[in-house]
Amino acid sequence: MNHLLDNLRDLKRIFWPGTYRPHLYNEAYALKADAHAQKPAASDELKLVADWLQPDPPRNILDVGCATGRPLDILCRHLGAEGSGADVNPHALELARQAFPGRPFQRMQGNTLPFPDASFDHACCHHVIGHVPSPSDLLGEILRVLKPGGTLSVITPNARYKIWQAPFNLMRDFSPDTSVLRYFTPGSLGELLTLSGFKADRLVTFGPFPSFCPPLDSFRLRAVALAHKI
Asked: From the CB of residue 119, how many other CB atoms can be counted at a distance below 10 Å?
């Protein structure tokens, strides 16, 4: 099995964080992220967030970990909003600037966001919180750049899904994302948001169930949160 060790490390990260390796965020990773953003499942996640925000749509959105800019563009078009992106991967940013020249994309240095205080109505942190060395530091930066009462959406793999899916992944020689450092349950994600100065307005699981799991909502593929700055 080519990916046996990667799967065992991936399972370990449910309980113990991995080691941050910035060299993994290269051109191949950018292209992989762009391909994922074009899948129906990714569109469904963005539609859920857009539907939550639609009653009082933000005018200015920041996508933290924007990759090639495609999810930001989709969300902005759904909501009629302006948008900016930030990412640590220079290859992804170059593709984003080529594809969406009307939107500003900036390079992040670690957890530092290159934007002034109170700049945005909403921030997206989609498939990012499990990748960074210090999730609390990143959320502190997001808190800084949000306007008073600004909102934050978080999408991340659900650790409970990973536990149930692990045997299936091992059998099928699944290739996990080796850049993930940790996984969150809905409960641990909500606790992190509270400790970081946010109040979770919605915290749900979303997407399919594991292959070896009964249809219980707490074990769906993603944990998704909508929170606001306190």
From this structure: 16
